[in-house]
Design a protein that fits this description.
Strand 1, helix 1 (11-22) and strand 2 (26-31) form a beta-alpha-beta unit. The protein has 9 helices and 13 strands. The chain has a domain at 2-143 and 178-203 and 263-280: NAD(P)-binding Rossmann-like Domain (Rossmann fold, 3-Layer(aba) Sandwich). A 7-stranded parallel beta sheet has the order 3-2-1-4-5-6-11, sandwiched between helices. Helix 2 runs parallel beside helix 3 (116-129) and helix 4 crosses helix 6. It is of the alpha/beta class. Bound molecules: NADP nicotinamide-adenine-dinucleotide phosphate (NAP). NADP nicotinamide-adenine-dinucleotide phosphate (NAP) is lined by residues 7-13, 31-33, 49-51, 69-72, 85, 104, 106, 121, 140, 142-143, 148-150. The site of NADP nicotinamide-adenine-dinucleotide phosphate has 27 residues, from helix 1, strand 5 and helix 4.
Length: 294
């Protein structure tokens, strides 16, 4: 199949491109910096900017399947940009007759109380849903791997003080997934027809909390940390706390941390593992791999 990866140079996209090549697909890698990537030579490069319609001419020509892996979290108006970009991509993919689109979104837990970041991820789902292609949505919580903004926050936190005063969201249940498993699911859906038009959750086998994940990451680095959740932390104080505790660009870290108030676990009725079974990587192993690669 001829497969387009939109957001091919990102944390997930770069790994997905290589996995698709290994699976025998013809791959087109698209992003603003695609020509500066070091993909193997069989990967076709398409450099362009979803913010610049002229640069998208021919993007979807001859494409059977496209993966959509775009977010604009560094921008203040990320929701507006992500809506515009998704519409622009939807129009081009529909006009070119793309058969399937796979979008990697976020698990939200409580759908009535979405953070701005998760609300925007949902909005992109509904924008893509009205395209003339079959849409498959995979929703993940934190994806563990070197280069993941959300895992870097966890990693950075464990490098700071041995005793941490943190917002009470550290107790929020979360079901992370290692990036290798996320990529295996993304590739795997192509072989399972029933995933066309479906919305699925992906995660590791076990439910964690951010607190447990912080402790695990610290242990893997040979450190011991004590976590003291503070019941009330004002948004202003949270912002200062965030600037002190992570080197992840503040504009990215803030919406991600805001989303951490929502429990993010796999809904058993939507678990992709039931439809596309893969050999799941334990979170401990995923953290080990991520730290070894960072
Ligand atoms: N990382 C996680 O923990 C996690 C968890 C759940 C869901 N997800 C979802 O997974 C998807 C991928 O996330 P990620 O962590 O891989 O993101 P990422 O590393 O930030 O990658 C984003 C990609 O989009 C490209 N891009 C951004 N703006 C663009 C534009 N205007 N035109 C063309 N390309 C553009 C970037 O390349 P250039 O900057 O070079 O253009 C990059 O290749 C997102 O939908 C995200 O919501 C991620």
């Amino acid at each position: 199949m001829r497969v387009l990866v939109v957001g091919a140079t990102g944390f997930v996209g770069s790994r997905l491109v290589e996995a698709l090549v290994t699976a025998g697909h013809e791959v087109v890698a698209f992003s603003r910096s695609a020509s500066r990537s070091d993909f193997t030579e069989e990967v076709e490069i398409f450099e362009g900017d979803l913010g610049d319609p002229a640069s998208l001419e021919g993007l979807c020509d001859g494409i059977d399947v496209a993966y959509y892996l775009i977010h604009s979290l560094t921008a203040k108006n990320f929701a507006e940009l992500d809506r515009t970009y998704a519409r622009r991509f939807r129009e081009r993919a529909s006009a070119a007759g793309v058969d399937r689109v796979v979008y990697l979104s976020g698990i939200s837990g409580d759908e009535r109380n979405l953070s701005p970041h998760l609300a925007s991820r949902r909005e992109v789902e509904s924008v893509l849903e009205s395209g003339s292609f079959d849409l498959t949505v995979l929703r993940a919580a934190i994806i563990i791997g070197a280069g993941s903004a959300s895992f870097r926050i966890v990693d950075d936190l464990t490098d700071r003080l041995p005793v941490m005063m943190v917002p009470k969201w550290v107790r929020t249940p979360c079901q992370p997934i290692g990036v290798d498993d996320a990529v295996a699911y993304l590739v795997g859906v192509l072989d399972v027809e029933e995933t066309r038009g479906g919305i699925y959750d992906i995660g590791a086998e076990t439910v964690w909390s951010y607190e447990a994940l912080l402790k695990l990451t610290a242990e893997e680095k040979g450190k011991r940390i004590r976590i003291v959740p503070v019941p009330v932390m004002s948004p202003e104080l949270s912002s200062h706390w965030l600037r002190l505790t992570t080197d992840v660009q503040y504009a990215i870290a803030r919406p991600l941390v805001e989303s951490m108030r929502n429990p993010v676990t796999v809904d058993p009725d939507r678990d992709l593992q039931a439809v596309v079974p893969i050999e799941q990587t334990p979170v401990e192993e995923a953290v080990r791999r991520a730290l070894a690669e960072s």
